[in-house]
Amino acid sequence: MPHATLRRSSLVIATAYLALTAHAAPPQVVKLGFAAPLTGPQAHYGADMKAGIVLALEDVNKQAPVIAGKSVKFELLAEDDQADPKTATSVAQRFVDQKVSGVIGHFNSGTSIPASRIYADAGIPQIAMATAPAFTAQGFKTTFRAMTSDTQQGSVMGGFVVKKLGLKKVAIIDDRTAYGQGLADQFELAAKAAGGVIVQREYTNDKATDFASILTSIRAKQPDVIFYGGADTQSAPLTLQMRRLGMKAQLVSGEMTRTDNYLKLAGNAADGVIASLAGLPMEKTPGSAALVARVKARFGAADFYAPYSYDATMVMVQAMQAANSTEPARYLPFLAKTRYSGATSAEIAYDARGDLKHGDITVYRADKGKWSVMETVSGI
User: Fold this and answer.
1) Contacts of 279 (CB under 8 A, 6+ apart)
2) Which range of residues forms the domain containing residue 208?
3) pTM here?
4) Residue 322 burial by CB count (10 A; 0-12/13-18/19+): exposed, middle or buried?
5) Are residues 225 and 372 in the same domain?
6) Digit-coded pLDDT (tens) for 206-264
7) Cα–Cα distance for residue pair 158/196, rounded to 1 Å
8) In angstroms, rounded to a whole number, what is the distance separating the alpha carbons of residues 322 and 289?
9) Would residue 322 count as lying in a domain?
10) Helix (H, G, I), strand (E, B) or coil at 225
């Protein structure tokens, strides 16, 4: 009997020891990839996007998450794709080789689209900032958006300019990127459908800063409005050059212009410029406002991409927790069925293509160094 008691005691001690050592074991690392321009003229976009992801993963890790019975810690692998499609595909292949569980990115449509094929072939879920319709039109099951598409945004702005502002004669310029051209294409279709007349369409590139010849040609057509599809590093000098040429046409653009960086670059010339942005105004999304405040306190600067990347990260993590697995093939179906209340929307959900089901577009006007809300179109 004493020997049996001793054996039982030893078993209890051994079991307790195993439980303690298992609890003390370091958490399993779950790698998530992030790619965006982190250097060059678009680095401010990438930095804002990264800030949201960093805060999201910190918030998740503070909760000591457990998946499939194991303690896990999420780790971010950040890459600079330089807003370049070729670099983006190299980055995507590195993420595949590093066996990331998912990717938040890329930022630009022109980088997200070529990278998406690599992720799709590897079965790795991707939630991108890409807004070009072509991103999800490819039919990959692994592609999801963090923001509304250009189809939604361009359509709203085309109708708004012609019907609400009464500006019929329209000139269009785009930077020939997947984003800029896609947004301009959708704007043109909507403007025509609303009764507008396209008097001229011109093209530039995403590195250009001299628009004198394009603007001189457009000025001869006397348009009521000029729509620009592209980034703030081009729309700001475009604005300044319009003012120098004495052009009175209304300048309208998309969310890559509706930034504090644009206001800083364009200065007083920005007054009166109109730009659209996906989502409700920040004052109507308290979670978004609070997150931007956190980003400013932590990183010194913030725009509006951080809340979207924060939500995208949380959506991906939630899908893993729902599937009880960090394996892409296991949690992908749960990601597709996402229903998540986040900083940017009361319900983030995807349709069969990975587009957001609920899209709100807000139109803003620049005035004295600030953006003010003109109108919000909901339920697109």
Assistant:
1) 147, 148, 285, 288, 304, 308, 344, 345, 360, 361, 362
2) 151-278+362-377
3) 0.86
4) middle
5) yes
6) 999 999 999 999 999 999 999 999 999 999 999 999 999 999 999 999 999 999 999 99
7) 9
8) 28
9) yes
10) strand
